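note to self — DONT lose this again. spent like an hour looking for the file last time. sequence + predicted structure for the chain T wanted, 422 res
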Amino acid sequence: MRKLVLIVAVLATGLAIGGYVFFKGERKAPIRYRTAPVERGSIVSIVSATGTVNPVTIVQVGSQVSGMVESLHADFNSVVKTGDVVARIDPFPYQARRDQAAANLAMARANVVKMRTELAQRRREAERLKRLQTQQFVSQNDVDVALTALEGAGAQLALAEAQVREAEAALKAAELDLKYTVIRSPVNGIVISRQVEVGQRLSSSFAIPTLFLVAEDLTKMQVEANVSESDIAGVAEGKTAYFTVDAYPGQQFTGQVRQVRNAPINVQNVVTYHVVIAVDNRDLRLKPGMTANVAIEVARRDDVLKLPNAALRFTPPRAERLAGEEGGPAAGAARSAAGSAERGAAPRRVWRLNAAGDPEAVPVEPGISDGLATELVTGQLAEGDQVIVGIEVPGSARQAQALPPGFGAGGRPRGGSRDRGL
């Protein structure tokens, strides 16, 4: 009887210990996966860039002559038309040069008259000596001297006539310089910049100084953006572009790619290409020089299946070991991916939960992406199927991860007490 009681006591103690370990002991929590559905919709692939809003045509109005600015007839935002006077240079020095050139022309013309008279005199003398020679009153030498003088008078007349043409050209140049002292607008437009003041001295010895910048038409603007060489392949003329500016937050403007320039721009070994986007600015809200955040639509697919990008990046724990297990679900996915590679498709896969709640690999062929979702070209997935995008982390684990390094879940420093020994 005593032995039976002892056996019952030992069994009860064992059951108590086993029950405590089973119900109170540490157990590994099962892995819970976060999933997202496969949806149907539109995918738009874009290329992002930063650019500047500028007028289509900007004309630099400058001065072709040097001098002091006498007056200004245009200012910022002035509307000008072709031929309107926008500035004047002090004309007095050029008037003096014009008068001097006119006087030189008059002197040259008077010299021509003189040379013609001289030529006529030499011609009469030569004819008279020829008649006297026939009567043997003069020698042949006298006739030769007279003929030489006649030819010299003809040369002097030709020289005088050339001097007249030179003086006429000098007068035209002086009159042109005087005309250039009145600066006129070459186009219809709006003055967007004035760079001189009255009394300022201009020098056109080496370069034409700029007085005004005139935008020909502010209702037609363009965005000049630099696109990276890795994205330029999808950008072509006629593509639709969207952009925003800081002046109008939340407002989206639409344009169209007008030109993709082939000249590369290399800045610190970074190669970009210049892309020009035409924009309609009838309401004149866009100002020259605004910074634009550009998104160029390079591809679009409508009514297609799309996967969350997180599903393409997700790999479950111990996926490599699962892939090596014979007959495992990942092994079939690996074989399917190998077959896709032989057919020339990109070997990609996503994961979904099978009937047992374990991750199951599904081979897919992705298409274009908009940064959040990717087009599903081919794959054993249908609309509404759930794919794994991540692993759910328990709240206590998230709280522990949020603590600073060196702190445990209870919020106290790990290790012994700092008061030990006191």
